[in-house]
Structure to design on (226 residues):
């Protein structure tokens, strides 16, 4: 590699490892910043309506092993969801909110179809920090602890996967200290740009599932390009 190429490569890496590789906001417009080259994670902060939260509490109590995986076409989701989501008090409010998310995600990426997973979890599905080998995933926690993530600054990506040498995330040197770990709140919408995004190989958003205490549950939704 020549000197010029090394300089360009270092500038490229520094841009993706900078502190400003994520955006946070309380307006849906913040989601469009995922298209900015240096951004690999977006957090739309929001509070859920009480009726939606109440529905999720009932879902956990009545359907503790609920797991829905399906592909939905844009603009045809409401009726489809009625037959797939448990008929509990607050169902209409929950479906209305979930349909809104499906519309936002499909419009943002101009998708004809969206792959959706709605699941009640009693454990961390992905307990280690990692990146996804895909374009851009939407994740939101309707009930329970939100997704944990690391900003670009101070993350040693060589410690991801096999690079941890069998050590825990805490011991491997992946991040500086516990203060480096950030966490979404219940209801927040995350966009996680993956390694599969064009030009983003090796720079996907670093995230993990939070630990789930005994007898606790989470209600989590993920959306992907179908």
């Amino acid at each position: 590699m020549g000197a010029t190429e090394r300089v360009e490569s270092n500038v490229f890496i520094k841009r993706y490892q900078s502190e400003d590789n994520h955006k946070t906001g309380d307006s849906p417009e913040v989601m469009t910043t995922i298209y900015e080259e240096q951004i690999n994670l977006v957090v739309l902060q929001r509070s859920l309506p009480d009726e939606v939260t109440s529905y999720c509490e009932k879902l956990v109590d009545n359907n503790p092993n609920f797991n829905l995986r399906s592909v939905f076409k844009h603009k045809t989701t409401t009726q489809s969801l009625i037959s797939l989501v448990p008929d509990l008090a607050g169902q209409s409010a929950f479906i209305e909110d979930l349909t809104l998310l499906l519309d936002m995600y499909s419009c943002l990426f101009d998708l004809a179809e969206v792959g959706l997973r709605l699941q009640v979890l009693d454990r961390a599905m992905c307990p280690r920090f990692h990146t996804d080998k895909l374009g851009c995933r939407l994740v939101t926690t309707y009930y329970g602890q939100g997704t944990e993530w690391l900003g670009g600054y101070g993350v040693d990506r060589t410690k991801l996967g096999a690079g941890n040498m069998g050590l825990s995330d805490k011991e491997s040197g992946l991040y500086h200290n516990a203060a480096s770990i950030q966490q979404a709140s219940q209801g927040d919408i995350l966009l996680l740009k993956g390694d599969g995004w064009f030009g983003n190989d090796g720079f996907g958003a670093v995230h993990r599932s939070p630990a789930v205490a005994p007898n606790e549950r989470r209600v989590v939704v993920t959306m992907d390009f179908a």
